[in-house]
Amino acid sequence: MKELSMAQLQEYLKLKYDNGQTSTGLFMKLVEEVGEVAEVINQLEGRKAHTDTHSLEKELVDVIHYTVAIASINNIDLSSAIIEKDKQASVKYNQTPDLETFLS
């Protein structure tokens, strides 16, 4: 299986949703998928009866898909944003290493 970079995923999703799709429409799908993740987790942890064939893996992929799609159509470079946000959190919570240091 081929490896996928964040940049490649963003480029692909920007192309895929370059049809006038709005952040609002994608966000509504994201909220729906987050609800499905909650359902699966509740089933896996015994808080709800297991009633369907949804898998946690597939539902998490859907959440990532719509999150990255929203970023892509809004021209947000997620790789840079994640590294910068982690740097801020590392300082705030006095944690080491930060992601940028970890990657180097």
Task: Produce a short descriptive summary.
The protein has 104 residues and is mainly alpha-helical. It has helices at 6-16, 23-44, 56-73, 78-92, 99-103.
Account of the 3D structure:
This protein has helices spanning 6-16, 23-44, 56-73, 78-92, 99-103. The protein is an all-alpha fold and 104 residues long.
What's the helix and strand layout?
Layout: H1 6-16, H2 23-44, H3 56-73, H4 78-92, H5 99-103
Helix pairs in contact: 1-3, 2-3
Query: Whole-Å distance between the termini?
Result: 25 Å
Range of helix content: 55-70%
Q: Quick one: CATH class of the largest domain?
A: Mainly Alpha
pLDDT averaged residue by residue? 95
Structural class: mainly alpha
Strand-residue proportion = under 5%
Characterize the main sheet. Answer: none
The geometry reads as globular
Name the helix and strand elements from N-terminus to C-terminus, one letter apiece: HHHHH
In the CATH hierarchy, the third-tier topology of the largest domain is known as Helix Hairpins
State the assembly state of the protein chains: single chain
- Radius of gyration from the alpha-carbon trace, in angstroms: 17 Å
CATH homologous superfamily placement of the largest domain? MazG-like
The CATH architecture designation of the largest domain is Orthogonal Bundle
How many domains, as an integer?
Answer: 2
Strand segment tally: 0
pLDDT < 50 runs, ≥5 residues: none
Q: Compute the number of helices.
A: 5
